[in-house]
Amino acid sequence: PDVIIEAQFDDNDAEHGQDHLQDMLTDDIKKLSLDTSEKGKAAGVTGVHRAKQDDAPKVSDPRLLPDEFLQRTAKVVCILEKKHSRAATGFIKLLADRNSELFKRCAMFSPVDHRVPRVYVPLADCPPDFVAKPEAYSQMLFICRIVDWKEDSNFASGQLCKSLGQAGEIEPESEGILTEYGVDFSDFSPEVLECLPQNLPWVISPGELAKRRDLR
Question: Which segments cross the bilayer (predicted)?
Answer without folding.
Answer: none
